[in-house]
Amino acid sequence: MNYGIMFIGFALAGYFGPSVMRQVFAADGAYQRAFLIALAFDVAGIILTFCYRVVLKKSEGEK
Question: Can you tell me whether residue 37 is helix, strand or coil?
Fold first, then answer.
């Protein structure tokens, strides 16, 4: 099940990443803002990972 979730994420990133980069490049003429958008998603993913770990530890402690 984990692999399915992971590959769905890869598929979405593979589709939306180039689409966003193309639109940002068309608007700005540079890729800098597109990389900042990608950085924001990376930071959000790291934060969600730590939130998941906290929730998982709490749920294991209740059992």
Answer: helix
Taking the C-alpha atoms of residue 18 and residue 26, their distance in angstroms, rounded to an integer, is 12
Tokens 């890729």 belong to: 31
Q: Which amino acid is at 36?
A: L
Long-range CB contacts for residues 1-7, cutoff 8 Å, separation at least 24: none
Instruction: Give residue 30's region: left, alpha or beta (phi > 0; psi -120 to 50).
Output: beta
Q: Give tens-digit pLDDT for 31-61.
A: 899 889 889 999 999 999 999 999 989 888 8
CB 37 within 8 A of CB 20: yes
30 phi/psi in degrees, rounded to 5: -150, 160
Alpha-helical segments (H) within 1-63:
2-28, 32-62
